[in-house]
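Q: Joint fold for the lines below.
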Amino acid sequence: DAGVIQSPRHEVTEMGQEVTLRCKPISGHDYLFWYRQTMMRGLELLIYFNNNVPIDDSGMPEDRFSAKMPNASFSTLKIQPSEPRDSAVYFCASSGLIGTSNTGELFFGEGSRLTVL
Amino acid sequence: DAKTTQPNSMESNEEEPVHLPCNHSTISGTDYIHWYRQLPSQGPEYVIHGLTSNVNNRMASLAIAEDRKSSTLILHRATLRDAAVYYCILRDPYHTGANSKLTFGKGITLSVRP
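A: Joint structure:
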């Protein structure tokens, strides 16, 4: 299995531009998580999905952030408009419930490093 | 959500055992204890997890207190590559909703001296 795949790995953009981050979870996993990591705040959970349905988006900073999961194999995190304070590494992770031949562990992608100038 | 508390940092010598503690006094009966680590410039990776019994795998051992209010991650022989941030997290994988998410704290930063 290829693991969780995120794109792009690096993104540099200017303030006000739209940013779209993409994630392909591991096949068969029914949970998908978006995290953000900064030096100041550490790893923060932004939103997570179960069976493509958003369960908890209380970590989404504000209306400029939105996430979708149109099908079991793809999710996007969009920031519009972007601001310098959005600069961070964004991680996507997936997992399944115990009983689906896995142990509930989260598998993380390599992250998307976003820099907003 | 049940919380965990860990020291901010620990130091170890290479090839010596390391015991990383974690307190989780409000753990519920269905919470699993998970440990993840994050190497520099990488995403977090799973290390080990357990419910009640001590667990061993190729990476580490997990010792769980009888009352489950604390646990210890044991690296039997630390190497320089083990220098990372180690997170102790509780997760209830049998339920959907809030208990399914993994909330990372600040973790413990392990430094390994040559």
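Q: Anything notable?
A: Chain A is about 0% helix and 55% strand. The first strand of chain A starts at residue 5 and ends at 7.
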